[in-house]
């Protein structure tokens, strides 16, 4: 791969508390084309903030689990310092909540520490070219979470539809009659069961039609179930 095609923003802050991982990331960055004097390493949030104050930063590799806090705090700090800064999370954390918080805070990409050097190098190269690399495992979790969220939102919106919003409220008697209609009873059967006249039943059903904006018994039952007025 042609390193000259890469734009290498400097200086770089690497926030990682494990010495072995620091050494590994340093070797990857040097192989990509960085110079050692452009790389600054921090093992904690406190050190990272000091480095940022003293040296600034144009690119950052950030771990999330740090001795004195969460790397997401530093991501937010970096974005306040420079909204355009490129930030790649390299972390062992893979819970949905942490992933989304890191991306929401401003992380450009997210790769897991367990990936081999080539995969980490490709993620760094991608982000330096303007990409937003997301670890395949992370991407699957995000997609699944988004699908569940969309399903939940659809169900919530459906449950939020109430007669008060677009329809008039059914009276207690109208609801009682509609329940019997849903059970398949005829007007006469409903009248006999409730000890009222068939004409009274018909009058109530007309009111139900009007309030639910329907014109048939089947539509009335379907609409009422959609609105949560009747059990499915």
Plain-language structure description:
By secondary structure, this protein is of the alpha/beta class. It has 2 domains: 3-138, 3-Layer(aba) Sandwich (Rossmann fold); 163-226, Arc Repressor Mutant, subunit A (Orthogonal Bundle), CATH 1.10.10.10. It contains 11 helices and 7 strands. Helix 9 (187-194) crosses helix 10. The radius of gyration is 31 Å and the shape is rod-shaped. The mean pLDDT is 88.
Give a concise summary.
With about 230 residues, the chain is α/β, with parallel strands linked by helices.
Count of separate DSSP helical elements: 11
Q: How much beta, percentage-wise?
A: 5-15%
Overall spatial form: rod-shaped
The total count of strands amounts to 7
Can you tell me the CATH class of the largest domain? Alpha Beta
Which strand order does the major sheet show? 2-1-3-6-7
Tally of discrete structural domains: 2
Structural class: alpha/beta
- Contiguous low-pLDDT stretches (5 residues minimum) are none
Relative helix content: 55-70%
SSE topology sketch:
Blueprint: E1 12-15, H1 19-32, E2 39-42, H2 45-55, E3 59-62, E4 65-66, E5 69-70, H3 71-81, E6 86-91, H4 96-105, E7 109-112, H5 117-128, H6 136-160, H7 163-166, H8 172-182, H9 187-194, H10 198-212, H11 217-226
Parallel strand pairs: 1-2, 1-3, 3-6, 6-7
Antiparallel strand pairs: 4-5
Helix pairs in contact: 1-5, 2-3, 8-10, 8-11, 9-10, 10-11
Key attributes of the depicted protein:
single chain; 232 residues; alpha/beta; Rossmann fold; Arc Repressor Mutant, subunit A; 2 domains; two-stranded antiparallel sheet
């Amino acid at each position: 791969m042609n390193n000259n095609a890469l734009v290498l923003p400097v200086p770089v802050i690497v926030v990682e508390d494990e010495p072995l991982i620091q050494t590994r990331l340093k070797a990857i960055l040097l192989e990509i084309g960085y110079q050692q004097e452009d790389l600054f390493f921090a093992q904690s949030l406190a050190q990272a903030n000091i480095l940022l104050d003293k040296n600034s930063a144009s690119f950052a590799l950030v771990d999330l689990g740090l001795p004195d806090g969460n790397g997401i705090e530093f991501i937010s700090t970096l974005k306040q310092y420079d909204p355009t800064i490129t930030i790649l999370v390299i972390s062992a954390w893979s819970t949905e909540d942490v992933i989304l918080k890191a991306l929401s805070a401003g992380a450009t990409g997210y790769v897991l520490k367990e990936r081999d050097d080539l995969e980490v190098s490709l993620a760094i190269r991608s982000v330096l070219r303007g990409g937003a690399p997301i670890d395949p495992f992370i991407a699957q979790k995000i997609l699944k979470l988004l699908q569940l969220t969309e399903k939940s939102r659809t169900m919530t919106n459906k449950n939020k539809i109430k007669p008060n919003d677009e329809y008039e409220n059914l009276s207690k008697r109208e609801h009682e009659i509609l329940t019997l209609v849903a059970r398949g009873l005829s007007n006469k059967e409903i009248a006999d069961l409730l000890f009222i006249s068939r004409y009274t039943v018909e009058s109530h059903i007309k009111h139900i039609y009007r309030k639910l904006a329907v014109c048939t018994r089947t539509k009335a039952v379907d609409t009422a179930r959609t609105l949560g007025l009747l059990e499915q």
